[in-house]
Amino acid sequence: MTESPEQQRPDVLRRRLRTSPARLRTALTRMPPWWPLPVCVLLGTASGLSYGLLASPQYEATSYAMAVAEEETDPSAALGYAQSYGRLVTSDATLSYAQGAAGEPVRALRTQVRSETSPDSPMIAVTGTSDDAGRAADIANAVIEAVIVSSGHVSKDTGVKLIKFTHAMKPDQPVSPSVPLGTAVGTAAGGLLGGLVLLVRPRRTGWSVSAQVPGPAAAEVPGPAAAEVPGPAAAEDDTTADERELVR
């Protein structure tokens, strides 16, 4: 009794699923050993190009504040307080105070603000990041103002106050990579990954590296003397003949 096509279809699918890994292994073994390198380069190029085309540009704006010691305070104390206030830039208290002027919630400001200080000068740099150039400048200015106001509340106790050094301006160009740069970076990363794959993957079975070591060369005796050198067997025959003559 023959089966209908509907009944034979599951068996055909099972056979194809069973033979697919073997076919895949066969296809991979027939490919050249360096195939991961061009594949990784193509994937890296496509990824870098896609990122450059689809990712929104990011802008950065930076404002600066300086710690100044009052008359009765040691000037070296300003450097230490600048380091302390630089750590308070990204605190929840500072960001909560700045969120109104920045136009961003505290959760967003945590990822859009960073601060930098110098070990040699009492300077604080606050950088705002956004996909809008004007918003990036607003974030930097709002946060630096919040830090200055907070330092003013305790300036009588610390003897150090912050003053604004420069105002953040609207940036003209984004800091995110352009399409050519993103493509180049993706290509380089893909080439590096492909090279690492070639280095760490196991060798195919049957590969061997052998070196041909030449055997010792026979000593060459010039002239007819080479034919006159007797071998061990000839010397033994001469000794036996002499012994026979002595016996007689």
Describe this structure in words.
This protein is α+β, with helices and mostly antiparallel strands and 248 residues long. Helix content is 57%, strand content 12%. It is built from 10 helices and 4 strands. The protein has helices spanning 5-30, 36-54, 77-87, 92-102, 106-112, 133-153, 155-158, 179-200, 225-228, 232-247; strands at residues 59-69, 113-117, 123-130, 160-166. Strands 2-3-1-4 form a 4-stranded antiparallel beta sheet. A hairpin with a 5-residue loop joins strand 2 and strand 3 (123-130). The longest helix has 26 residues, at 5-30. The radius of gyration is 41 Å and the shape is elongated. It starts with a helix and ends with a helix. Residues 206-211 and 223-227 have low confidence and may be disordered.
Helix amount, in percent?
A: 55-70%
The low-confidence parts are 206-211, 223-227
Overall geometry comes to elongated
- Ends apart, CA distance between termini: 104 Å
SSE-based structural type: alpha+beta
The averaged pLDDT comes out at 77
Write the layout of secondary structure elements.
Layout (H helix, E strand, L loop, with lengths): L4 H26 L5 H19 L4 E11 L7 H11 L4 H11 L3 H7 E5 L5 E8 L2 H21 L1 H4 L1 E7 L12 H22 L24 H4 L3 H16 L1
Antiparallel strand pairs: 1-3, 1-4, 2-3
Helix pairs in contact: 2-8, 4-6
